[in-house]
Design goal:
This protein is an alpha/beta fold. It is about 45% helix and about 15% strand. α3 crosses α4 and α9 packs across α10. The radius of gyration is 19 Å and the shape is globular. The mean pLDDT is about 90. The structure holds D-glutamic acid (DGL). The site of D-glutamic acid (DGL) has 17 residues, from α4.
Length: about 280
Amino acid sequence: MSLQDLQTRPTLLVVDSGVGGLSIYQPLWQRWPALHYLYAFDNAGFPYGDLSANEVSRRLIALIDAVQQRQHVHLVVVACNTASTAALPLLRQRFSVPIVGVVPAIKPAAAITRSGVIGLLATPATIQRPYIDELIQQFAAHCQVERLGSIELVRLAEAKVRDQAVSTAVIEKILAPWLCRSQVPDTIVLGCTHFPLLSAELSKVLSPEVVLIDSATAVVRQVEKLLRPYCNDQQQALRNKLYDLSRQVNKAYCTRLDASAAALRGTLHDYQLMTLQAISLD
Ligand code: DGL
């Protein structure tokens, strides 16, 4: 690897409809703090779980295009299950940059369940996708997979990140279809990137033996493979020395800079996303 290669700081673009993608951004940023990150959230299209697959695809293409017009991007992470299960093949056709998606962790859940009953907690759109039927067929045909879709839970995660209280009673009501069954799933797949942000609240309502499982580790592994030339620890240490990180700060983009988006500035800053700018999708 040449000095010039080491001076190139790869740019990762992480996209979602809202704050959910932060549950994927965070482990990436913690693992490789010296890469350059852009976090783009399409809050004007939120929630994606209420949109058709075509509309989600159209918005994501416009969002990635809009960011690429401002900045050269080396890798895109679609940090949203609803979007990935709808649009990944189309996005990979449309863009030459590598694209990593997030899909519900059905396979690892099928490997660890003891009772054979798995819960899939995702948006109402995700639980109905043909892609999910295929995943279950392929990796969990021997299990009973109970699907529960909730947009309310997505909204609660958005509220929590804005420092609003999350009511245990509301979470209980959302999970009621599982809680009132004789056999509650022993392994629950958090099939929406917003839901790991509510892990503590979900665990409070579920029995302590229930395992919650998300897709962040799988995404980190996949990004590691694609960025191998940039990501080994020795090169990372050298890059830290060579590169003045303050020269090109990590940035966030939203599609509507309203009061609710502006309220995220403090949180984004905590994740070292130093600026928040509006980006339009026309
Ligand atoms: N974070 C998204 C996901 O992983 C969905 C949220 C939404 O409905 O916009 O599915």
